[in-house]
Amino acid sequence: MQTVFLLFLFILQMISFYFMALLYMKISKFNNLEKKQHKLMAEMDDAIVAYLSELKEENDRLINIIEKQQEDRSLQETAREDRPIDDSIKSSEKKTIPIKTPGYPMKAALKSYKTAPALNKDSLASQVTEEFELDPRTLAIRMHDNGKPIEEIAKRLGKGKTEVELLLKFRK
């Protein structure tokens, strides 16, 4: 009976040594992982410091370039003020104002007007005022529900095709 008891204690002791060895291995893995994390954090800090120093150098170079351009402009302006200006030079230096052409071609507008279904004036006016009161997202959804293609919706809203697709994709 004592031998069985001693054998049982011996087996329990071996099992406890096994579990202690497992725990020690887990703790050493955790310590190694922690050391790796500290090393990665130090590398990341170094990388960020290097990036920020490069960014600072780029900003300093940009500031120097801008200051040089401003100095050059001020020198040019003082040089212009110093020399006499003829009336003929003044008239040639006048800037021309560009004339804005309509964004939508006249033939396309006439074609769409002729092919549009007949509507009474009240429903057309309410539809136009309703379109202007709606936000672009709601208007895009309504136009899509009415069967309009995405390209037409994008043109009408003045947005990109991808932006309209995203609006329609994430609607509630």
Layout of secondary structure:
Layout: H1 2-82, H2 87-92, H3 106-115, H4 121-133, H5 136-145, H6 150-157, H7 161-169
Helix pairs in contact: 5-6, 6-7
Descriptive labels:
mainly alpha; single chain; 2 domains; 172 residues
What structural category arises from helix and sheet content? mainly alpha
How many domains make up the coordinates? 2
Distinct helical segment count: 7
Estimated radius of gyration: 38 Å
Return the average pLDDT rounded to an integer: 79
Oligomer: single chain
| Extended strand count | 0
Main β-sheet description: none
Any overview of this molecule?
By secondary structure, the chain is mainly alpha-helical. The chain folds into two domains: 11-84; 123-169. 80% of the residues lie in helices and 0% in strands. It contains seven helices and no strands. Helix 5 (136-145) packs antiparallel against helix 6. The longest helix is centred in the first third of the chain and has 81 residues, at 2-82. 2% of the residues are buried. The model has no long low-confidence stretch (mean pLDDT 79).
Write a concise synopsis of the structure shown.
This protein folds into 2 domains: 11-84; 123-169. It contains 7 helices and no strands.
